[in-house]
Automatic annotation (TrEMBL):
Alphabetized InterPro entries for the sequence: HTH-type_LysR_regulators, LysR_HTH_N, LysR_subst-bd, WH-like_DNA-bd_sf, WH_DNA-bd_sf
GO cellular component, one term: cytosol
SUPFAM superfamilies cross-referenced by the UniProt entry: Periplasmic binding protein-like II (SSF53850), Winged helix' DNA-binding domain (SSF46785)
Location of the HTH lysR-type domain: 1-58
The keyword Transcription belongs to this UniProt entry's keyword annotation: yes
Keywords per UniProt: DNA-binding, Transcription, Transcription regulation
Top-level taxon in the UniProt lineage: Bacteria
Species this protein is from: Lactobacillus equicursoris DSM 19284 = JCM 14600 = CIP 110162
UniProt key word Transcription regulation: yes
Similarity comment: family membership: Belongs to the LysR transcriptional regulatory family.
Annotated protein name in UniProt: LysR substrate binding domain protein
GO molecular function: DNA binding; DNA-binding transcription factor activity
Gene3D superfamilies: 3.40.190.290, Winged helix-like DNA-binding domain superfamily/Winged helix DNA-binding domain
Length: 280
């Protein structure tokens, strides 16, 4: 098995036809079919079901497609990273971004940095914090902006934004909400903060009513916009997306941070180093 065969396989899988895949590869159809047969023999599994008007992946083929796609992406990333090491100032930065990173990504200083580095480009990969951490561990990212809390064991990090949580509601809310006042409302929350919210209420002898829990603070705001409850979200997200009233909270424990992270054992290219310094 080689990279050429993996590329042929993924393109055939994407096209759904050997004929159109051969055209895309500028390759003769018999030669492509031969490579696919060789690949199936080497893998010891049937990867395709050949039909009159195309091909269909078997269960083994679907699993192999996932592996092949990742291997090809890793190979491309390795080539890019080595090129960056050699050239120093040009190349692609693979940057992970959580949905709640709008307060720092893109930032004016990052945009200014890109403008004076015309050879620089960004591949942005968006996911929740856990998905971004998985991509980092799989070496699919160079750097990432994620929100606390997270497991720091394998990571270096720089805090780039510390911000309070705020309350968002379509209805009337008093100024400077405390725990006692807030406990009287149905709450719409970002699930990552559920433990923090619950512990704080419990320590005050209060029991919160979480009417909605979601995996995205923007989703929490959308539900709140429909009048279902008071959304508790980071201040930068409220500023960007809230349509209702935004109120400050007098609850010191309810702070969250956005941090720039990278793997401790990662090779740091000059370009990565410059961006890390940009956020220090």
């Amino acid at each position: 098995m080689n990279f050429k065969q993996l590329k042929y396989f993924t393109i055939v899988a994407e096209e759904g036809q050997i004929t159109s895949a051969a055209k895309r590869l500028y390759l003769g159809q018999p030669a492509l079919s031969y490579q696919l047969r060789q690949l199936e023999e080497e893998m010891g599994a049937r990867l395709f079901i050949r039909k009159p008007h195309g091909i269909e992946l078997t269960q083994a083929g679907k699993k192999f497609y996932a592996y092949a796609s990742q291997i090809l992406l890793l190979a491309k990333n390795a080539q890019t990273e080595l090129s960056d090491i050699e050239t120093g100032k040009s190349g692609t930065i693979k940057l992970g971004s959580v949905s709640s990173s709008i307060g720092v990504l893109p930032s004016q200083k990052l945009v200014a940095f890109a403008q004076v580095h015309p050879g620089l480009s960004f591949d942005i990969y968006e996911d929740n914090t856990y998905g971004i951490l998985d991509k980092l561990e799989d070496r699919l990212l160079d750097l990432a902006i994620i929100r606390t809390p997270f497991n720091r064991t394998k990571l270096n990090s720089i805090k780039v934004l510390d911000e309070p949580m705020v309350a968002v509601s379509q209805g009337d809310l008093p100024e400077n909400l405390n725990l006692g006042k807030l406990s009287k409302y149905p709450l719409v929350i970002y699930r990552r903060f559920e433990n923090l919210f619950t512990e704080t209420f419990n320590q005050a002898g209060l029991t919160p009513h979480f009417v909605v829990k979601s995996d995205d603070s923007r989703t929490a705001i959308r539900w709140s916009d429909q009048g279902l409850g008071v959304a508790l979200v980071p201040a930068s997200i409220a500023q960007a997306y809230a349509q209702g009233r935004v109120r400050k909270l007098t609850i010191p424990a309810w702070h969250t941070q956005l941090e720039l992270v990278w793997l401790k054992d990662q090779v740091i290219t000059p370009l990565m180093s410059d961006i890390i310094d940009l956020y220090r």
